[in-house]
Every structure is written in C-alpha cells, then in structure tokens.
Specification:
Blueprint (H helix, E strand, L loop, with lengths): L3 E2 L6 H23 L6 H22 L4 E4 L3 E6 L2 E6 L3 E8 L2 E13 L2 E7 L11 H12 L1
Antiparallel strand pairs: 1-2, 2-3, 3-4, 5-6, 6-7
Helix pairs in contact: 1-2
Keywords: Membrane, Transmembrane, Transmembrane helix
C-alpha cells in the first residue's frame, strides 16, 4: 500500500478493560438475578450498565478501522480484511468521536459504503487529553477544499 499510515490499532489495555467492565457487570447481574426473591432496582442498573458499556466499547474499541492510509487524493480504509477508498468529495465531515477521546476520529460519509455511513479510527498512539491530533486539521481542510 502506498501513502502514509495515519491510524494506530487499539491497544491491548483497551480490549482488556472492555472485557473486564462487561464481565464485572455480567457477574453482578447474575448474582442479583440468582438471589431468591430479590429483583430490585440493582438488576435494572446492572443490565443498563451492561448495555451502555457494550454500545460504548463497540464504538471506541471493537468498531475501529484496522488501518487508514492517506494517499493524497483519497483515504484507503482497511477494516476486517475489506478495503475501501474514500475520496475527499465523498466525505461529509471529519470530527472527534467523543470530546473525551481526542485520539479517535470519525469520518462521516455522504453515501453508504461497505462500512456504513461512518468510519472511526485511532489517530494517535497515546491518549491526548487536551489536544487534537495533527492529522485532524489537515484532513478537515482537505475535505473543505474538495
């Protein structure tokens, strides 16, 4: 593949933390549901936290693109063995996924592609808290000019 690799894979710690989080709430739900005569608000809270955690980790850990290559005129996105070329005129917006995750960038497209209407990738190795990745401003400018 030609071009510059602008993405980084999810860290092992992220995957381990997600499994730990979901496992903790799944076990807590089982204990609450297994207790005799006790169906309380705690069971509802545990099930809610399990659902929210699953959705959150799907967006921030498991649903990330494997690789994103900047090839000048287009971005080459690789996810689960599939490749897709995103030309800058097909991109609607490029922004942070969540305000507290500055290292995650979401690309929203104008049309459906093989990955849906958006692709999320990790733009830096670390966990920048207050600063945006350098590549974000560059990509936003190129989308604006396309």
């Amino acid at each position: 593949m030609s071009g510059e690799l602008i993405s980084f894979p999810a860290k092992g710690f992220d995957r381990s933390f997600a499994k730990l989080w979901l496992g903790f709430f799944a076990i807590a739900c089982l204990f609450i549901l297994a207790a005799e005569g006790v169906f309380s608000f705690g069971a509802f809270v545990c099930l809610f936290m399990l659902a929210v955690g699953f959705y959150y980790f799907k967006q921030t850990v498991w649903g990330l693109a494997d690789e994103v290559w900047d090839n000048g005129d287009f971005l080459l996105v690789v996810k689960s063995g599939q490749q897709y070329q995103l030309f800058f005129n097909q991109i609607k917006s490029i922004k942070h996924t969540y305000p507290n995750h500055k290292h995650l960038i979401t690309i929203s497209t104008k049309y459906n592609n093989s990955f849906g209407r958006s692709v999320t990738f990790r733009a830096e190795k670390g966990y920048p808290v207050l600063k945006s990745p350098k590549i974000l401003n560059s990509l936003q400018g190129r989308v604006y000019n396309a």
